[in-house]
Structure formats: C-alpha cells, structure tokens
Amino acid sequence: MELRLLRYFVVVAEELHFGRAAQRLAISQPPLSVAIKQLEQELQASLFERNSKEVRMTAAGEHLLGKARQLLALSQQAAQETRDVALGTRGHLRLGFVGSSLYRGLPQALEQFQQTHPQVRVDMLEANSAEQILELQQMRLDMALVHSIQPPETIASQLIMAEPFVVCMPEHHALHASAAVDLAELRNDRLILFSSLVSPTYHQRIYEMCQAHGFAPEVRHEVRHWLSVISLVSLGQGVALVPAALERVGMPRLVFRPLLGSHPSSEMLAMWRRTPTNPLVQELLTCLKQAVAEL
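Now predict its structure.
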C-alpha cells in the first residue's frame, strides 16, 4: 500500500469533496479519482459512496481513516528521526573509556553532551586500550578513549590531553615533604605498575623512565586499573608514577609530587573508525575538548 495513496485518501476523507481535496493536494481531480479507485481495488473494499450531490465514507473507509493517519504519522516520524540521526541530534553512541578519563573531563563532557543531545543514548564500556581498539574494529564501539597506543590504519585518532606523570606515594613516605622528586630517588622503592598485558605502552614507558635514571624498578604489583594502583599505594604497598589527573580522585593517605626534569607525558587519545562513521563522535569530541580546556 503506497503512502501516496493513503495521503490522498485522508485528504478526500477530510474534505468529502474530490474537487477541494484535489486543490489541497495541488493535483487535478481526474488523477485523484484514479488514485482512490486504485486504493479501493488494492484493498478490495469500497471506501466512498459517491453521487452527484455528495461524497460519503463507507464503514470500510471510516475504519481505514484512523489506520491511515497512524501510518502517515509513523512515516513522518521515521523520516524526521532518520534526518536527526544523520545530523547527529538523535541516535545511539557506544563509548569505550579507560578509567583515568573519568578524571580528565569525561563526566563534564558527557553532561554537556546530554544537555545538547537529549535524544541520544550513550552506552559506556570501561576497558583497556587494546580491548577498545578491538571493539572499534568489530563495530561494537563507536568511539574509544585510550592511552597512548598506535592505532591500525582503519582507526582515526586525535590527542585529547597530554599531562605529566607525578609520583604517588604514601603520606608517611620519606620524600613526602619534598616539593618535587628526582626519579632516581625512588630506586629503592617498590613500584606498583599497570600490567604489561593490559597496557604495554604505559608499562614500557614507565619502565624506560626508570632505566633512564639508572635503575630497573622493583615491580611489586601489576594491576588493571589506575584506582587499583593508587589504592595499593595508600595501603603502603609501594609507590607509583601516575597521570597528574589522578590527584583529583581525593583518596586519603596519599601524597602527589611532580618529577624533576623532563619526562614523557601521559596521553589520552580519542579513536574512532574511519568508516562507517557515526556523526555523534564529532559532537562528543567537541564537548570533550571543551571540558579538558576548562579543567
């Protein structure tokens, strides 16, 4: 059943006059009469009773009128929602993130995004960088927030934030009163570090930072999440080199101190598939960059 025929039928039913209905539809009367006959033949039902004086709806026509209006409204709604999705004002965004992004502007970006895109549903998945890239490739994520990692050619990326590593130590540590710490001063400390299986780039970067200062770190624990890292530090299990953003966690019994000298930075990148693209990715990227700038 063509939507065009249903639209013609509804106008005739509202006017109960083929001439006025044709004027509303901006067509001539003969094609309108042909269209109504075509619809009646398709439905195998008479929709109107006509004579030289009036047009009246049949019982079948009155039944069809409500259904036709519903179908036309649904078609208009589907068309509008499709346009909204294409414009990025409606839809579904599947976002992956690493834990540190929660202290790097992600909550503020999501709040702003939801205010400007109330018709968009955001589903979130916490996972390490390698897992998120795999999810992107398998089209189970639309966007990923990851640590420094080289993406495949099919994945686009943009640097969102780069910040220094700082020393995270228990409040009773011998260096807690220092304004800044020379990394070499940690040579006798046990280091709490990200697992090399979870984040090989971070693991290697911190290991190389220590080697550049003349020592190989004694790794006490390897964990999967930054909150696990600083939690173990707060329990006196060792020290850690963490992104400066983790100072915002506010966990007790911890001291954060900057490192002396020049060191590699801790980076957060946004990644997404080059094709097919979800227009909502760029919308969230804009909110995220603004949130990071305001931190």
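The longest strand covers residues 155-170.
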